[in-house]
Write a structure and sequence with these properties.
This protein is mainly alpha-helical. The chain has one domain. It is built from two helices and no strands. The two termini are 32 Å apart. The model has no long low-confidence stretch (mean pLDDT 85). This is diacylglycerol O-acyltransferase. It is a multi-pass membrane protein.
């Protein structure tokens, strides 16, 4: 879903800082800082909305 914007951002930052680790840092930031907590929150929200309907 966010692959195309991330590719553009990664290419821009790699050219700006001339560092090949930028893509790796962006991946781990998105995956660890945003991805997993968001998955847990969405799962919890879904679980609570299902319990409320029952």
């Amino acid at each position: 879903m966010f692959q195309v914007p991330l590719v553009l951002i990664t290419n821009y930052l790699q050219n700006k800082y001339r560092n090949s680790m930028v893509g790796n840092m962006i991946f781990w930031f998105i995956f660890c800082i945003l991805g997993q907590p968001m998955s847990v929150l969405l799962y919890y929200h879904d679980l609570m909305s299902r319990k409320r309907r029952s």
